[in-house]
Predict the structure.
Amino acid sequence: MTRPAVPEEFLEGYGGILADVCATGRRLTRDELEALRAQGERAAEAGLGLRALVRRHLSAARDLSPALASAGVDRVLAAVEQAIDAFAEGHERAQRLAVRQEEAARREFIDDLLYGRSNLGRLAERAERFGLLLSRAHAVAVAQGDTPVDDAHPATRQVDSALVARFGERHILLTTKDGRLICIAPGDQDDVLAFFAKQAHAATDGGQVAIGRPHPGAGGVVHSYEEALNALELADRLRLDEPVLRAADLLVYPVLTRDRQAMADLVHTALGPLRQARGGAQPLLDTLTAYFDTGCVAAEAARRLRLSVRALTYRLDRIHKLTGANPADPVHRYTLQTAVIGARLLGWPGDQA
């Protein structure tokens, strides 16, 4: 394979510096070192790799070796070491700057994308640079653990490596925002988000993942992202502990809370009498929650509450007497279950309702 040629402009003055330093035995001056650093920066900006550049500088020193022989090997090697070190420092400095600029541009794009800012046409152009085609529908998954993560967090690198190994160069964007891990994928590739959810759950030590619905265009990414965030917030308020939440499965809850006053009235009317129970309403509310969450299976509800089935049955009977609604009766069950959901959303029996 032919190695890429290094233009002579990136060795300009190098031979003269070596010759003078070897002849006098001095060290390189500050101006000489800075000139070599500047050459290294320009070489990096030109896209030349450091290995090829170092090899070319060593080759040039070898070509000059007959003229430098009288200075002795140690003096020649010391001069070459100083010169190449300064050149490499400039090259690395330019690389670090490029990385910072790329990270800043990527972070600005992520912020604009997830907040729906910037001109949509310009946003679509920038999206292609980061592997997204905003003409397609996209869905967003958000993972949230106990410990915040950022782009340099081990969990981020672990999930990113797993996604690349499994799906290669698909149009997927993995990023972080506000301490959460975020994956944006084409809306017709649910396998990507399902795999991300599994990997993110493990990498965040059991964190919860919410997946928004697919929506078209740049605005669709924002919409799906907000759905995922709302699902995580809802899970916290309802104490849902499922590892993966899908916004499509939780659509009933925003409907129930759209009229907050009507929901508060329902909670007060249907569950208010539970306040009269010894110990207050909370133990009986917990009983209803467990009963409905287990599909009205008394034995399983009792196990979750660490009660005997007899004690659970007594509590259900007490609820029936206080509210006039029988949890085991399908006619009454819908009203009670809706009120229990409302109580959890409103924080009842606290001060909210």
Remarks:
- The radius of gyration is 33 Å.
- The longest strand covers residues 137-144.
- Residues 73-115 form the longest helix (43 residues).
- Residues 53 and 69 are 23 Å apart (CA to CA).
